[in-house]
């Protein structure tokens, strides 16, 4: 069983600050982390390996050289090896160009050892699109199953996997032939504490870094900014609503005013039975 | 080449023969775009035994409906649905194609955009067209910042976007409207499918409680810690409201993700929304700003939440909320019985 997990380095949106003048992110203020959904994806690969007894877990990322940090983090969680594709040719990619580059890297990884499962996080917390996972699946011509909340069963003889896929109001139980690709949410597992040997391995691990020249049959116009159909047209601050009334005074006065307002708004609000 | 592409399409998501609300909202939004561009608005319907829905789709604004009705389309799955969409899109070539930003809509749009090698904007909250260039202007909050980004797709067609539920407005249902129904055959066999939906399990209790609540009490980082956040639960309990929270609160583990309000959580439009200890980052505001009546309590007088609030209280939530709870309890006692909402 060979599982490849796609991971992304993102700024920690919990800590990042907004520059009040430009209304944009002050990127220097945020440390770079492994996208939280991707951490769950790696953890799920570890779980699946445990379920079937053996297997290789590879992680794949695209980004600047410092993105090797998220590969090391994935090794801590339990991955065996990691690949980073890093090249100026990939820069400025939207989701279409990103899924193209990653699928080319997956092709090369599959040459070394055929891939059974690809797992991605539901979405990255910096872009919030969730479009790259299904895109990779289409390019590899394997079925995508998004929003997986449970891997129920894996049948190695039949090469099928049983998955629970979350819906807006419940879930679907899906049987997929594998190789397939799934994207996972946070509900799927709890991140476990990394065992000491993993930590040591991660500290010493040197991820494999590929440039565009290391990938085969690449159609360069499909990469990076050039290969991206979408562009940011303009950035704007949304029209500011004028805001409502402030309730002034000390806290008792404020609460009393609010209670009056709420009781006045009969069509909206409170009546006691 | 791109001149061949004409018309605005909306993917009509149906579950068990019931059209998703967001699809009707998109017919409303799509109608405006189509009128501006002077083209037809089409609904695209996939499913099994769903033809009866076509008049509904027309009543909500479509000029025509493309239908692929086949047993293989009974339950949503990427594999069969994307083949149905590809068949239609390659044959009829729309210039704009909108999907609801639901789990299925996002899944489908991502797969279709890849096969059509076209651009897809995720989680759009504003739509417009540049008439001169016939460009869709799909705007969404830019990552984290209090700023919107307009995404364009200049050289590829169709221009696709997923759109957040409850942001656009559906038109009033008008059964006197007429339109054309175009049925399309598809040659797919179940035995060739690599994915099978074995069962669909419904759990309406969880999400519905927040999405359909008349009153929501939501809290943010300003409550300090998970203990401070208890005040939110207490106030909600007292007035029979649902609890919600910001992304920070969910990331910190104070609330489960299902209760997150905002761009990456639920978009809700309750009658009353209490925003307590919430600064009002755009990521949160897009999920609640259409609430009828918004009450904000925050220490920072310059917090952007006050811009969308109907009534604002500058003050310490730790001091104000307990007093509010006390008042509600008193009111309940005086009037004898439950507090309820009209």
From TrEMBL, chain A:
CDD domains: ETF_beta (cd01714). Gene3D superfamilies: HUPs. It comes from the Bacteria. GO terms for molecular function: electron transfer activity. SUPFAM superfamilies: Adenine nucleotide alpha hydrolases-like (SSF52402). Signal peptide: none annotated. Residues 229-248 are annotated as: Disordered. Residues 22-219 form the Electron transfer flavoprotein alpha/beta-subunit N-terminal domain. The lineage of its organism: Bacteria, Bacillati, Bacillota, Bacilli, Bacillales. Pfam families: ETF (PF01012). PANTHER family: ELECTRON TRANSFER FLAVOPROTEIN BETA-SUBUNIT, PROTEIN FIXA. This is Electron transfer flavoprotein small subunit.
Automatic annotation (TrEMBL), chain B:
Its cofactor is FAD. FAD binds at residues 246-247, 260-264, 277-284, 298. One of its GO terms (molecular function) is flavin adenine dinucleotide binding. One of its GO terms (biological process) is fatty acid beta-oxidation using acyl-CoA dehydrogenase. Residues 8-197 form the Electron transfer flavoprotein alpha/beta-subunit N-terminal domain. Pfam families: ETF, ETF_alpha. The keyword Flavoprotein applies. Keywords: FAD, Flavoprotein. Binds 1 FAD per dimer. It comes from the Bacteria. The keyword Flavoprotein applies. Belongs to the ETF alpha-subunit/FixB family. PANTHER family: ELECTRON TRANSFER FLAVOPROTEIN ALPHA (PTHR43153), ELECTRON TRANSFER FLAVOPROTEIN SUBUNIT ALPHA, MITOCHONDRIAL (PTHR43153:SF1). This is Electron transfer flavoprotein subunit alpha/FixB family protein. The lineage of its organism: Bacteria, Bacillati, Bacillota, Bacilli, Bacillales.
